[in-house]
TrEMBL record:
The keyword Iron-sulfur does not apply. This is HTH gntR-type domain-containing protein. Transmembrane segments: none annotated. It comes from the Bacteria. GO terms for molecular function: DNA binding; DNA-binding transcription factor activity. It comes from Zafaria cholistanensis. Keywords: DNA-binding, Transcription, Transcription regulation. Residues 1-67 form the HTH gntR-type domain. The keyword Cytoplasm does not apply.
């Protein structure tokens, strides 16, 4: 672990970017004064964390990658599973966090992100009869706002939980009338963010998440009590 931390620190110190190769094995063995087995275990750990990719063959070796939220998603899911936390935990967390994300996004979201947010809303409206497209655009909408908040913690947190946020993984269904309600809510949130109105953005998101919670509580109370499991996709 200590060697892995030193490798990451050196990646930052050198200013390495995605696609850069790390020094050859012999150079790292000399630099870190360790055995080959320790180095390879350290590199394997960093590969599992998405920091590097180990390219095989001549000219291969460790190559710098951009970590994503997959490692965080696994860790969070396992932590919640071993706490026997119900899915209700996710719904309650959304109510506390997403209005703040929308509030920050209203003043921090870039024009490109705003365009992407608008597209997700429009595409959802155009494909309202297609539940799979609806669910995809629903995830996309909340992901853009989280990253658009300008807060990296929010961005990666939502990215890591996208597979669970809407409840579809545990059986919460979205008939067309519910999809229409979500589309209208997304439209209201988009308009508030596009107007650069933090208070209105937070209020619109709060109402959206509250409506989701009321719907789930009314229609699927037993599913909200379903323990979170790593098998959820």
């Amino acid at each position: 672990m200590l060697v892995a931390q030193r490798i990451v620190a050196d990646i930052q110190r050198r200013g390495n970017t995605v696609g850069d190769r790390l020094p050859p094995e012999r150079a790292m063995l000399e630099n870190y004064q360790i055995g080959r087995g320790t180095l390879r275990e350290s590199l394997r750990f960093l590969e599992l964390q998405g920091v590097i990719a180990l390219k095989p063959g001549p000219g291969g070796g460790p190559v710098v990658q951009q970590p994503d939220g997959s490692g965080l998603a696994t860790a969070l899911t396992l932590l919640l599973q071993f706490e026997n936390a119900p899915f209700r935990t996710i719904a309650e967390s959304r109510a506390g966090l997403e209005p703040m994300m929308a509030q920050l996004a209203a003043s921090r979201m870039s024009e490109q992100q705003l365009t992407e947010l608008k597209h997700s809303v429009e595409h959802m409206g155009e494909q309202i009869g297609d539940e799979s497209e609806f669910l995809e655009m629903n995830k996309r909408f909340h992901d853009i706002i989280a990253h658009g908040s300008g807060n990296a913690m929010f961005g990666y947190l939502v990215e890591s939980l996208l597979g669970m946020l809407d409840g579809s993984a545990i059986g919460i269904d979205y008939p067309e009338h519910r999809r229409t309600a979500v589309y209208e809510a997304h439209s209201n949130i988009y308009e508030a963010i596009a107007a650069r109105d933090p208070a209105a953005s937070a209020a619109a998101m709060h109402e959206h998440i509250s409506a989701y919670a009321r719907y789930a509580e009314r229609k699927y109370p037993e599913l909200l009590d379903t323990p979170i499991s790593w098998t959820i996709r």
